[in-house]
Amino acid sequence: MPGFSDKAILIDGRGHLLGRLAAILAKTLLQGNRVIVVRCEQLNISGNFFRNKLKFMSFLRKRCNVNPARGPFHFRAPSKILWKTVRGMVPHKTERGKQALRRLKTYEGCPPPYDRRKRVVVPGAMRIMCLKPGRKYCHVGRLSHEVGWKYQKVVETLEKKRKVKTVLNMRKRDKLKKLTKKAGEKVEKQLRLFLSYLGGCCIKILK
Length: 207
Prior knowledge:
Helix content: 40-55%
Strand order of the largest sheet: 1-2-4
Distance between the termini: 68 Å
Shape: elongated
Structural class: mainly alpha
Order of helices and strands: EHEEHHHEHHEHH
Strand content: 5-15%
């Protein structure tokens, strides 16, 4: 991760391990950087799905017997699961920790302000870099859906639309580049003829 910067770091969560990414984010936030994570539903957790679901169900049973509305609160959305994982790695009860958490934004899918911006990855937290080939893993989006998150289909639909739109924009941009190049070549030929004519006229005048 880079040093302190005013510009927010935009991370694509797809294919990252939840815990590894959270640890790096916590350190980056405490250094004073602003971080935005998109596509949180495509984060991975090591271990097979059944084992991770059992862990989450155990977590759901932990509540206040007197009044469960007091907490602990069990977030189901993938973005909030990442947020809470980072919170556990930050001294969130101190002012420094509170300010660090305010600098973190997490989203499912890739919402409009960020779909046109360049996204980066964190190699130290990528599943293909950290997990041995053949090891089992699961997706946070599927886990969230199984424990009560209701927007999996909505996010999938919006992501499909975004990808189609991106492909169309790329084709349009490439077409415009080709036209610009063609026009430049055409103008260059005309300009060369014009300059050669001007050069000939100048030589005659000097004689």
